[in-house]
Amino acid sequence: MVINNFFVNxxxxxxxxxxxxxxxxxxxxxxxxxGTHMVKNQYDKFFVIDLEGKSVTITIVRLKPAYEFSExxxxxxxPKANQSFSLAEKLLQNENTLSKNVRKTRYGRHVHFxxxx
Length: 117
What we know:
This is Transposon Tf2-6 polyprotein. The chain has 117 residues and is α+β, with helices and mostly antiparallel strands. The chain has one helix and seven strands, in the order E-E-E-E-E-H-E-E. Helices cover 18% and strands 29% of the residues. The strands form two sheets. The chain has a five-stranded antiparallel sheet with strand order 4-3-2-1-5, with no helix packed on it. The protein has a two-stranded antiparallel sheet with strand order 6-7. The longest helix is centred in the last third of the chain and has 21 residues, at 81-101.
């Protein structure tokens, strides 16, 4: 007796739209899922979805929940111009202090000379 254990996403039972896995040999760079498809009915082992205008019964093993994003996008908070310049100035000051203490070759390697010479 063969027992197949498949992963079923727990949020699949509460979703309104799903992605459908394409079970065929695909050419390179072809997406593995088609969708999003609207769920019409839900049962324990299969769903009835709207596929190109037709009601199709699909097993839950081939489905993946589709999450919908809200339409409102929160505004981005950009740093003020004065803050960005002050950060750049601090970085330049740190580089200047480091460059005085460390000598580099023209290829960018750090060189340390002995103090006894």
